[in-house]
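Person: Please work through this fold.
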Amino acid sequence: MAMKSWREITVPHEDVLKGSFQQAEFAADISRVHDGTATAEYQDPVMFFKRTFITEGMRLLLDSVVKRLIGKGGDPVVQLQTAFGGGKTHTMLAVYHVAKGEVDPKLMPGIAEILKNAQVDELPKSRVAVLDGVNVSPSQPKKRGKTNVRTLWGELAWQLGGEAGYELVKEADAAGTSPGKETLAKLIRQHAPCVILIDELVAYIRQFEEGHSYTGGTYDSNLTFIQALTEAMKAVPNAVLLASLPQSVKEAGGERGNAVLVTLENYFQRIQALWKPVATEEAFEIVRRRLFNDITNSKGVEEVCRSYADYYIKNAADFPQETQESRYLQRLINAYPIHPEVFDRLYEDWSTLDNFQRTRGVLKFMAKVIHRLWNDNNQDLLIQPGNIPLYDPEVRNEVIYYLPQGWDPVLEGDIDGPTAETAEIEKHDPRLGSVQACRRVARTVFLGSAPSNTSQRVRGVQQNRVVLGCAQPDQVVDLFKDALRRLSDRLHYLNSASDRFWFDTRANLRREMEERKRRFEGKEREEIYPVVKSYLQKLLTGDLFDGVHIFTPAGDVPDDIALRLVVLTPDAGFNKSLPKIAVDKAVDILKSRGDQPRQRQNRLIFLSPDQQSVGRLMDQVKTMLAWQSIVDDVKEMRLNLDQLQARQAANACNDAGDAILKMASETYKWLLVPMQEVGADGSVSDTKWEHKAINTSGANTIAEIKRALKDDELVIFEWAPMHLANILRRWFWKNDTNDVAAMDVWNKTCCYLYLPRLHNEGIFKNTLLAGSSSRDFFGFAYGKENDRYSGFVFGAHTVLVCDSTLLLINPAYASTVEAQYKPVPSGGEYPTGGQTSVPTGVADSGSNGAQDNGEVPTIQQKATKKRFFGNIDLDPVKAKFQFSQIADEVIQPFATQPDARITISVEIHADSTKGFNESTQRVVRENSKTLKFKNAEFEES
């Protein structure tokens, strides 16, 4: 008689059949149960235990809790710690329902037996306090009656004893300080028997930043509370504490969460009892109870499982050794209708991946698999790895979600689907196609190898295990072995070595790359830093800085007026909570240039890598260099690869390089800017460091740096004359000093960190020019002799020559001396400032205008003037200023007439009775050439 398929013996639950299975339904929430708002399968103790398989670990834990509550032993503190999704919260719920005692134990499947074994006739009702780390906030008090409960210890006291219990810790709750263990012991003793359940403790405490105080206390006070609580539990013989802790850094929540986890583990290890996690064998029953209805045809199950066991023994050489043991038959029965190999791969391999939950992840994945197989009318005896319908989008998306990017083409091109290579092979070989041998083999290899990684000593799935995942009783084993050989020759992403097979997104060359990558360990400065530097040079291009110095020693960073960006080395990473490493490196460069102190400190901006990201950048560079070495060896014929492999290596190298550029941009994101603050009394602070994270998602890194510097005014790109005038009054015009050299002001802004940091000298000059026409900011002069200014200008727009002679004059003082520089009406020397032209329409005493006799003057028609010629001799000392006046007063009016053509020639005649020395001749010739003089010759006479 033919054996029945799995679908003829068992039927999935309704939600699995409809495809409405939701993983969230199985994410137990102890807070909702405690509040009475959970779904019936968790809220109702009878339904909860009906659908819960009591594992060995859960049984031992419940036995200990029961004994503890009646004062006959048991552990006072139990730490529940397993991998992500290992059933910690589910186990807490079991303890919760047993301790509450709201239902007769006989109605809760499995509980009566536990009480009997513990020699307990009746379990007393116990108080249960639930502290859920994701259900309380460090900064938001919880309203309890008329009381605002702030801390974990306040919440614990309230749940155990209400207002009376809270009074014991009221002061400690208000102050945010932990109560002592004696106070906690008194609280617990007054309300025993009791159970305290603490879930997601790491998630709560990691929110506290060290050194900061919150409504819920401080980081240290919360850790002190946990320590005191664990100690207090020992003093009360009928009270028990259960706390769940994550096992992985990923679930702990990064580096800070991991630090909290390590600290809590130290506290719990003093008096804890570790909980035994769910074993793989027990997981069989957990999954079956949740996904399938009760199986009534036990005879049909045993018949199918025995046929598999006999098949494995008959072909012993082709299957793993474990299948030859008698207990393997029991494994088949326990796991039915799912083959044990499916569970082994999911629990042993896939559960090592980040985010893949051991129980809920398996449930969700298998629910999708079963739903599709049921709808496809699958008639196989068991659900094996070779049955996994990777062609189904839902199933495929579920597995790819946990894997790195790059698996879509592997699945579509090599493994499963209408266009996959496996289907193509079966289409042309009916012998293989009759049992879908190629697709079954590929699915089995994928399930067993996709979550593997290159850090494993041995990768891949052995041939006998591949056959185990595919073959069914009465099928020819060699058919699947032949299919595996065919796939090894045809598939692009299937790798093999030493009787092991694995899929990888990097076809065949990945292992070679990883081996080469190890060559760069310990050679970061020699091999890795130069590559990082080259990519940073590509990123940091633009005209924002006069110089960009990447990994440059302090002695090689110039000390001048140029605005410079200094990029720190990867080992000087910045972290907001621990900035010292990066700042210390920046200080070394800021304070000195080699053996000499640095003068112009206000011209340096620093760019530091993110300490948490720099490791990934370094690793990515090693990856690129490894791929590059493969590409180079192929070109030099030191490595023999076919064209496909060579092309894949080249593409991988390019991709790795592109990733470095992006990763370098994301890593080098911290601007460190030195500054000093000035107090109200004029005192200057020590050097402080502004840190600013630039936007790493922008297309242009330099543009993002400019935006960050501009937004926070760390660098001034536009400066109003009023701000310059304020700086002059505060620092330069004081102690009877009414003028200062403009270039001295500019130079001091380059030196002192309490002065504004201007982008360049042009910003300074533009500010001077913008304020020249106003009488509110400053006056100008080109030197000073015997208390008399040369080229004095005040309140008149002028063309400035910003050199060492230019002075900036206090406007109040400039007003008092302005009368000295009024222009002479007629005759006298050439005026040096003020208004120099006659107003339009005003005639002088020698004009031909009308007499003042009341008659309307007759306007005489004059001939049109079409040409102007003028010349003037300039004073060599005042030439610079006089020429600027000529440009404003004479040349500018012509420029306002559109059809005017203006020609300006400058003739310079210089004579020396002794002759010009060689140095003077060389300087004049070079400068004349640079300024493009038509003629510039020296003559003997």
The longest helix spans residues 643-667. The chain has four domains: 35-274, 290-505, 522-711, 880-929. Residues 35-274 form a domain with the Rossmann fold fold (CATH 3.40.50.300). The two ends are 130 Å apart (CA to CA).
